[in-house]
Amino acid sequence: MKRSIVFEKNAVAVRNRFSDDKTWYLMTFAVRAGKTHQGLGSAILRPVLDWMDKNHYSVYLETHKTVNVEMYEHFGFQVVDTCMVPGSQIKQYGMLRTAR
């Protein structure tokens, strides 16, 4: 439990540095293991990002998987912060897709 609280405090601190009232936070996004690389993630994410673009919102997210960074960059996200989750060996990437 303590580790979860430390992680969340860190995530909130980083997120607050890169978001404002026109920024949405993409908290959880996943495709079931065994179903990846079939276009499902794109099919889910693309309409959300299209809506964000239409309404001129930015989107912020974090990922702990280096492999995900390239995928999110494909959708226009940029790494704005990289840090270690306190008390762990987990690297966290903060990524922002600015309003269009």
* N-to-C order of helices and strands: HEHEHEE
| Basic shape | globular
Uncertain regions spanning at least 5 consecutive residues: none
Q: Return the CATH class.
A: Alpha Beta
- Whole-number count of domains: 1
Please, how many helices?
3
Please give the number of β-strands: 4
Strand order of the largest sheet: 1-2-4-3
Q: Strand percentage, roughly?
A: 15-25%
Helix share bin: 40-55%
Question: Secondary-structure blueprint of this entry?
Answer:
Elements lengths: L1 H17 L4 E3 L14 H15 L3 E6 L2 H9 L3 E7 L6 E7 L3
Parallel strand pairs: 1-2
Antiparallel strand pairs: 2-4, 3-4
How would you explain this protein's 3D organization?
The chain is built from three helices and four strands; from the N terminus they run H-E-H-E-H-E-E. It has 100 residues and is α+β, with helices and mostly antiparallel strands. A four-stranded mixed β-sheet has the order 1-2-4-3, sandwiched between helices. The longest helix is centred in the N-terminal third of the chain and has 17 residues, at 2-18. The termini are far apart. 9% of the residues are buried. The mean pLDDT is 88.
